[in-house]
Amino acid sequence: MKTALWSAALLMLFARANAQGVSAPWDISQTAGVLADQAARLTPVLGRLDPELWEKNGAPAAYVAQALSTQLEAGYLVDAARKFAKQPEKLSLAISTYFRMQSVETMINSLSEGVRRYQEPKLGDELVATLAANYGNRDQLRQYIADLADTREQEWKVIDSEAQRCRGDLMKLPAARPAASQTKTSPAAASPVSPASPIKITK
Is the model's pTM score more than 0.70? Predict the structure, then answer.
């Protein structure tokens, strides 16, 4: 009976979460896949960067190092998004993908200024435009994380409440009484003691 009630409570919770707008796993999985494909389009654009030309044009060494770091981070973003697409119910993968996206955004927004100044303005604009094409997917991912985190919190509240109720029920149960001890006595000890017979003295 308790199991049936507990299962019903979880089903009601999941239904309420979907009604409140939590994306279905297959929907966010598709979004993650599109995000990964769009992030992969950064690779050929980043491959056209020419850090050696930047150095000749007086670019700081930090820009050269940042170009390599951005290429690596873009690859990490693609990998994270594809892993999340396969397991959309995992909040940790969703958060990892979102953080990777933020990192790539920060790097490219900074790097694009150097590209415009030390290589070619159009290439810098193309880099930013390729990144911006993923903003819609990023926003959907951010909303999904917020909704999923709220759902997980509600689940834990239900679990904690049920655990507390069960603990209370156990506390109300009567304590078990110790079994009465039975001492076995020997037949000799159990029989009454007869009075001693008088001793006759003969002369």
Answer: no
